[in-house]
Write a structure and sequence with these properties.
Low-confidence stretches: 2-32
Structural class: alpha/beta
Largest sheet: 5 strands, mixed
Strand order of the largest sheet: 2-1-3-5-4
Shape: globular
Radius of gyration: 20 Å
Distance between the termini: 21 Å
Length: about 270
């Protein structure tokens, strides 16, 4: 999740710059319920939902319908299978990090998703029993290509950025468009610490979102926000300009949007977690 070119949304006061039909209970009734919905009906319902937000009207189809039109749902809502099959067992992943530094951030990020989805999707694993491993990475060849990265069942946090005393200041400068000085007063220090904590919690929450099958969106209030995206595979459209959403910015607050949550509910129905 690249964060170098974020928009100035939340710099705030930082002074350092079915029920199944049961009446008959017949074999015929059960078979009818399981039939695949006509594609034109699926498309019609999708078109009535907000952009990239699979509201309840498209989360009430049969399992056969999600299987039949999986590519359509992927494209319309920027989702896809991103974890290997062994990551989620009964809709639950065991997450482990050997890093004492990352442990507290990871715990918050796991709780963020669990609370939002109303179930324990992410559970703390152990060194010998885990399905997702979280650790530090190098951030690519030049060390600045990403802040967080998820692939198949491994989640990395950019160690250089995490341990830097100036990286968050650089991000804040990009957000505000102004020079941001190092914290001097106690109030400045407290504000900086809040942004630092929120940034890395949001980064890990974002990467856990990928494990659930969520790709990026252009909305600043989404935890899955990215600065840009290209229409390919399971991406609905290209963008280079961010969208404001509800006016908040998840990159420092670690708050999931309604769109984040609904997309995760959809990926469960699609069998991605």
């Amino acid at each position: 999740m690249k964060k170098k070119h974020l928009l100035a949304s939340l710099l705030a006061s930082l002074t350092i710059a079915t029920a199944l039909p049961f009446s008959l209970g017949s074999h015929f009734q059960t078979q009818a319920y399981a039939k695949t919905t006509a594609k034109k009906t699926v498309i019609s319902r999708i078109q009535k939902t907000p952009d990239l937000n699979p509201t309840s009207s498209v989360r009430s189809f049969s399992k056969a319908t999600y299987s039949q039109y999986k590519s359509t749902f992927n494209k319309e809502y920027n989702v896809d299978l991103m974890s290997k099959p062994s990551v989620f067992n009964h809709h639950q992943a065991l997450v482990y990090t050997p890093s004492p530094q990352l442990r507290k951030y990871l715990a918050v990020s796991m709780k963020t998703w669990n609370n939002a989805l109303g179930t324990t999707v992410f559970k703390t694993g152990t060194s010998t029993n885990y399905t997702i491993r979280v650790g530090f990475g190098t951030g690519g060849q030049n060390g600045s290509l990403w802040d967080g990265l998820y692939r198949t069942n491994k989640l990395w946090v950019n160690k250089s950025h995490f341990n830097s005393n100036s990286y968050i200041l650089t991000v804040l400068e990009a957000v505000s468009g102004k020079k941001v000085s190092k914290p001097k007063t106690a109030a400045d220090k407290a504000a900086y610490d809040k942004y630092y904590r929120g940034f890395w919690e949001a980064t890990i929450t974002h990467e856990l979102g990928h494990s659930l099958g969520l790709d990026h969106t252009p909305y600043l209030d989404d935890i899955m926000y990215a600065q840009s995206g290209e229409s390919a595979g399971s991406i609905k459209y290209s963008w280079t300009t961010s969208k404001t959403g509800n006016g908040s910015f998840a990159g420092f607050t670690n708050k999931l949007s309604n769109r984040d949550i609904n997309r995760a509910k959809l990926t469960k129905l699609l069998g991605y977690w």
